[in-house]
């Protein structure tokens, strides 16, 4: 079977890997010059079932409301005449109940845990390297009440098998020496020993090389303009560099996926949410964090990727705008200077912004589409790195008529 995969980010390349491993002919199309040049390029670097909470929660509407006049909120909602954003927003608000938040979080954490195991299996099978760290994540709490709430909320993930332990202030200083000087600013932390971190771009480019060795063809610099259909089947993919035909097709274009399915007669509730990251060279290895994690009060994530420190923050509902200004990174850099003042070369930042393909409920959209030979693998939001290998394994299993190892019904487009 010849499968055409649309997109060469984490989801597209992992899909190609699983298909090629089964002996299928695979062609991957992407508008960029190489793999992982968009959302997978400089993400948080975290593979964290311990942070799989759904964004749609009872607290989210007030955070979004405050963002209309404040710039220091983790979620930023920009009022604009965008029917797609408002339609998505209404679905998001419908999921902001305690019951829906719990259900969606459980769905996500099951996929994340499954995917983490698949990532390890792919790494072992191919021998690729990607600045992997298995030291576990630290979720830092500055306020005692927030710390108590964090421990209470974590029971939901613990019930799904996510292991964790709490660290009081003095324990935190011993466990992560880079924080010893600022230990009094924290009430405590939660450590999830099986969470991991690593460079998603290095993983994707190395896996693409492995795919080439298995015979996968990559067509870079090809902007997809249309998916051609006849009846209930896709017949070809048209790009500015020609037409590609296959027996089956997998849509893995992240935030851009709905733009191609709308002309086919069906919509997907995916909206782009801009995320920001900055990468700094490590200046002092002894002062750099040994663990990765999240400052929960500021929602700033940090991860040491080899000789670099990656910082990420903010979810900006700004449409398809990927532009950024240095001021967009001031908050996360200030947090990093507070926590790790000697760790990084703060005068040499590398800025990045990307679009996270968010669904209103949180779980991605995977599996069959209304067209019999078009499959979906998109909408993975802010933890697509964590979910990538598991998601692609599930989609390929379904394509080949096998029952996935975890229940895939909650990820299908038909849930909407």
Automatic annotation (TrEMBL):
Presence of the UniProt keyword Transmembrane in the record: no
Domain FAD dependent oxidoreductase residue range list: 2-398
SUPFAM superfamilies, per the entry: FAD-linked reductases, C-terminal domain (SSF54373), FAD/NAD(P)-binding domain (SSF51905)
Entry keywords, A to Z: Oxidoreductase
GO terms assigned for molecular function: oxidoreductase activity
The EC number(s) this enzyme carries: 1.4.99.-
Keyword Cytoplasm tagged: no
Family: Belongs to the DadA oxidoreductase family.
PANTHER family: D-AMINO ACID DEHYDROGENASE, SARCOSINE DEHYDROGENASE-RELATED
Record-given protein name: D-amino acid dehydrogenase
């Amino acid at each position: 079977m010849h499968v055409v995969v649309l997109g060469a980010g984490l989801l597209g390349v992992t899909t190609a890997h699983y298909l090629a491993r089964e002996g299928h002919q695979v062609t991957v199309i992407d508008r960029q010059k190489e793999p992982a040049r968009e959302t997978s390029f400089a993400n948080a670097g975290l593979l964290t079932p311990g942070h799989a909470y759904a964004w749609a929660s009872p607290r989210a509407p007030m955070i979004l409301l405050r963002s209309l006049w404040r710039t220091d909120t983790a979620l930023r909602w920009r009022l604009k005449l965008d029917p797609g954003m408002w339609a998505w927003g209404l679905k998001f608000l419908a999921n902001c109940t305690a019951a829906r938040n719990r259900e969606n979080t459980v769905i996500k954490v099951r996929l994340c845990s499954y995917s983490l195991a698949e990532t390890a299996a792919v790494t072992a099978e191919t021998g690729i390297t990607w600045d992997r760290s298995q030291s576990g994540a630290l979720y830092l709490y500055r306020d005692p009440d927030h710390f108590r709430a964090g421990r209470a909320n974590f029971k939901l993930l613990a019930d799904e098998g996510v292991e964790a332990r709490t660290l009081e202030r003095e324990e935190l200083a011993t466990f992560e020496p880079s924080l010893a000087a600022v230990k009094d600013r924290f009430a405590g932390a939660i450590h999830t020993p099986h969470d991991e971190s690593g460079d998603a771009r290095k993983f994707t480019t190395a896996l693409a090389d492995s795919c080439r060795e298995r015979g996968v063809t990559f067509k870079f610099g090809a902007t997809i303009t249309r998916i051609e259909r006849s009846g209930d089947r896709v017949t070809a993919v048209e790009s500015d560099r020609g037409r590609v035909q296959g027996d089956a097709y997998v849509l893995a274009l992240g935030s851009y996926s709905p733009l191609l399915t709308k002309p086919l007669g069906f919509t997907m509730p995916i909206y782009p949410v801009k995320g920001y990251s900055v990468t700094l060279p490590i200046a002092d290895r002894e002062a750099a964090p040994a663990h990765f994690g999240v400052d929960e009060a500021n929602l700033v994530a940090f991860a040491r990727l080899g000789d670099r420190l990656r910082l990420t923050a903010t979810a900006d509902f700004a449409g398809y705008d990927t532009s950024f200004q240095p001021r967009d990174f001031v908050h996360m850099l200030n947090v990093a200077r507070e926590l790790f003042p000697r760790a990084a070369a703060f005068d040499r930042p590398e800025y990045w912004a990307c679009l996270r393909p968010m669904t209103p409920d949180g779980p991605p959209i995977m599996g069959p589409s209304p067209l019999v030979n078009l499959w979906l693998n998109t909408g993975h939001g802010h933890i697509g790195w964590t979910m990538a290998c598991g998601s692609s394994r599930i989609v390929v299993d379904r394509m080949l008529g096998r029952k996935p190892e975890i229940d895939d019904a909650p990820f299908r487009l038909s849930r909407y």
